[in-house]
Amino acid sequence: MSEKSPKLRAELDGIPTYKPGKPAAAGGPVAYKLSSNENPYPPLPGVLESAVAAAGSFNRYPDMACTGLVTELAERFGVPVEHVATGTGSVGVAQSLIQSTAGPGDEVMYAWRSFEAYPIITQISGATSVQVPLTPGDVHDLDAMADAITERTRLIFVCNPNNPTGTVVRRAALERFLDRVPADCLVVLDEAYREFIRDADVPDGIELYRDRPNVAVLRTFSKAYGLAGLRVGFAVAHEPVAAALRKTAVPFGVSQLAQDAAVASLRAEDELLGRVGSLVGERKRVYETLVGQGWTVPETQANFVWMRLGEATARFAAACEQAGVVVRPFAGEGLRVTIGEPEANDLFLHAAEAFRKEL
What we know:
The chain has twelve helices and twelve strands. By secondary structure, it is an alpha/beta fold.
C-alpha cells in the first residue's frame, strides 16, 4: 500500500475545532446543561405536531427553495421574498456568506472574543481573519474595527448581542460604524439572540438593512424558538447577496421537518414571547444575584451571562459541574452560562456563591 495520501488544502492546517457545549453526564451528578444557550422549554404549541406530520415524508427530498418558510419570513419582517435566504442554522448561512465574498488574499473581520465559529469558517474559505479586541467592558470596539478596514476587507461580522459576552452595540455607535464602512464591504449583523434584547437603544438590524445594500442580517430558530436540533437559520439581505447565498447553500440542506417546524413556530409567536419573557426575568435575577455576590459581570441582553475569570475559569467550571450544572468555559478567559430553568439557575448561583468565598 502506498504511503502517500490525498493532497488536502493547506488552509485546513491548524483550523481550531469547534467546541460544542458539554452535555450533562448520563448517570452522573450533572443534572442541567447550561453550556449551549439552548432554550429549556419544549417545542412551541403545534410545532411537534407539524414535525411529526413532516416525518411521514422522509422518503422525499425537502423543498429546496424552502418556499413556505421563506414566504412566511418575508411577510413576518416586511421584506421581499427575494431578500430571504435560508440555511442550516445561522452558522450555515454565515459560512455561505464568507464563501460568497472572501477567499485567499481577502480579509474577514470580527471582534474577539466573539462567536467561535467565525475563525473556523474564515480559515476554511482561505481568507485571513482580522480579530479586533473587545473593549475592557467586553463590548465591540467599533471605532477600532473601522480603523482596521483595508482594501482587502470583504466581510465584517458584528455579533449583537455578542456571544459569549452578551454585550450589545447601540444605535448611534452602530450607525456611525456603518457610515464608515466602504460600500463594497459586506457587514453581517449576527442577531442570533435578538428576541432576548430589552434595551430599546439596540437597533433591529432588519431596519438598518433596508436602505443599506451592504448590510445583511443573520437570525436563527435555534435559540428563542427552541429548534436547535433541527438546524434552520436565515439571512435577510439585498438581492445580490441573497442570490449568492442561494447559490452557495448546500442543496436540500434544510429538512422539510425543520421548515415546517419553523413555520409553526412563527405562528406561535404569542407563546414564544411569553417564554422569552420568563427567561429574561430569570436573566435579571441571575445577573443581579451575581453582582450582589461581588462578581463583575457585564450587562447581558442575550440568554446567558459571561464571567471573566482568567486562570480560575477551569476550576469554577469544575465546581459548577460538581454542583449539578455544566457551563461553557473558555480556557484562561472566562465562562458563559446559559439562563435555564429556575432550578438550574439556583444550582449555578449556589456554586458561584461558594466559589466566590474561596477566591
